[in-house]
């Protein structure tokens, strides 16, 4: 389903993300302080380019944040990205927000605020997509038959504070690992969920709907 996405920062990652998402039919606005940065978007970009600060509420409003389904703050400054992400989340009520950071030690602090963060050393456009558009069926790995998938899903807010082992369904889906604070962990089944966790789940292709039900706020109704 196409959504409106605001990308703050038009560097290599921001421009690449904007072009890729627009090509898939999403509505895109890009915000950057430097007008010349928009040249990276190319002549075929048909979205909105807004010159200004990513933590200026009027600038964000011009970029259409009030109708946005997701926001990615990917400038070169940690503080700017976090401030932008907090405004998007707390003032405009955008649920899917991700911020790029350069200091991985800050990641857990920000994630406790409900802001997904990815440190530069692990940052890719694909990782941003996983946070912004978690409902897409994009696999990290599949077996030779195409029936066994490894999917990434952000932890829903309502599962924060609950044991992650509750997500598993024997024989159908298994929690393989969790990325928390930019660091991967393999002791997922012993962990309690935190805002900002990225889950890595092995699931049969025929049971993807079951996974979605397990992560849904109405999952009890599907059991």
Write a concise synopsis of the structure shown.
The chain is α/β, with parallel strands linked by helices and 223 residues long. It contains 6 helices and 11 strands.
Question: What is the spatial order of strands in the main beta sheet?
Answer: 3-2-1-4-5-6
Total helix count?
6
Find the count of extended strands (DSSP E, 2+ residues): 11
- Estimated radius of gyration: 18 Å
Q: How would you sum up the global shape?
A: globular
Low-pLDDT residue intervals, each spanning 5 or more residues: 218-223
List keywords for this structure.
24% helix; Alpha-Beta Plaits; 11 strands; 2 domains; 26% strand; disordered C terminus; 5-stranded antiparallel β-sheet; 6-stranded parallel β-sheet; 6 helices; Rossmann fold; alpha/beta; 223 residues
Describe this structure in words.
The chain is 24% helix and 26% strand. With 223 residues, the protein is α/β, with parallel strands linked by helices. It folds into two domains: 4-132, Rossmann fold (3-Layer(aba) Sandwich), CATH 3.40.50.720; 139-222, Regulator of K+ conductance, C-terminal domain (Alpha-Beta Plaits, 2-Layer Sandwich). The protein is globular and about 55 Å long. It starts with a strand and ends in an 8-residue tail after the last helix.
């Amino acid at each position: 389903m196409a959504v409106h996405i605001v990308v703050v920062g038009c560097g290599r990652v921001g421009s690449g993300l904007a072009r890729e998402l627009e090509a898939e039919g999403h509505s895109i606005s890009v915000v950057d302080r430097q007008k010349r940065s928009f040249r990276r978007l190319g002549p075929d970009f048909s979205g909105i380019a807004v010159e200004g600060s990513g933590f200026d509420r009027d600038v964000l409003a011009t970029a259409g944040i009030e109708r946005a389904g997701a926001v990615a703050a990917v400038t070169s400054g940690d503080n700017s990205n976090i401030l932008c992400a907090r405004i998007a989340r707390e003032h405009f009520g955008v649920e899917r927000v991700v911020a790029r950071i350069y200091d991985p030690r800050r990641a857990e602090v920000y994630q406790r605020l409900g802001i997904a963060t990815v440190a530069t050393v692990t940052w890719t456009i694909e990782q941003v997509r996983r946070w912004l558009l978690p409902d897409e069926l994009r696999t990290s790995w599949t077996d030779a038959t195409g029936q066994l998938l490894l999917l990434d899903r952000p932890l829903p807010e309502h599962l924060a504070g609950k044991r992650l082992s509750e997500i598993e369904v024997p024989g159908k889906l298994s929690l393989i690992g969790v990325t928390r604070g930019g660091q991967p962990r393999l002791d997922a089944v012993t962990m309690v969920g935190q805002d900002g966790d990225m889950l890595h789940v092995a699931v049969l292709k025929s049971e993807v709907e079951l996974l979605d039900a397990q992560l849904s706020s109405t999952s009890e109704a599907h059991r």
